[in-house]
Amino acid sequence: MTRPFKVVAVSGNVQRPSRTLVLVEELIAAIGDVLPIEPHTIELGPLAPQIGGALYRSQLPASVEAELAAIESADLLIVASPVYRGSYTGLFKHLFDFVHQDALIDVPVLLAATGGSDRHALVIDHQLRPLFSFFQARTLPIGVYASEQDFTGYAVGSAGLKARIALAAERAAPLVGVAPATAAQTVPALRLARAA
After folding, report:
1. Model confidence pLDDT, tens digit, residues 140-162
2. What is the number of domains present in the chain?
3. 109: nearest Cα among 79, 135, 82, 146
4. Structural domain boundaries, residue 68
5. pTM
C-alpha cells in the first residue's frame, strides 16, 4: 500500500473565524478525496506572537521550528492568505522568510487566497506565484481565489467555488510524489545537511 502523502496547509489569516481557513479545509478535503493523505494545518494566528519579533530562525521556539520542519518536508503544500492592500499578509511572508531557500525545490504548491471582492483575484499570479518561484517550487497552474460572495457566513456557499476546489485537487493529484530525479537526490541531501 502507498504511504499517505504529507499535505501541509498554511492558513495565513490571524483571526478566527476565518474564511481563509475554511478554504484551506475544503482544499484538504478535496485532495483527500483523490489521494491518500496525512494532512497537517498550520494557522498563522497562534504563531504570530512567536514569529513577529524574530529576525533569525535560531530565535524561534521549538513549536515554530516544528511547523517550519513540517513545511519543509511536505509532499504537497497548500498556501492561502487573505488579501490586504493587494497582497498576502506581512506575517504570512515573514513565516516563509524562515523557510530554507532550498527546502521546497520541486515541491508542488497549491496557491489560494481570499478577498473582499473579485478585483483581488490576481493576487495569486502577481504575488503568491513569484514568492514560491523564488523557492523553485512547482506552483500548480490552477490556484483558487474566493471572494466574500463565495461564502455563506463561514461556509462555502458557491457552486462555482466548489467546482474550482474540486478541479484544483484533481489537477494537483498527478503531481504529488512525482519529482525529477535530480530533485529527488538533491533535496534529501540538503535536508540532511541542515539537520547535521
Report:
1. 999 999 999 999 999 999 999 99
2. 1
3. 79
4. 5-195
5. 0.88
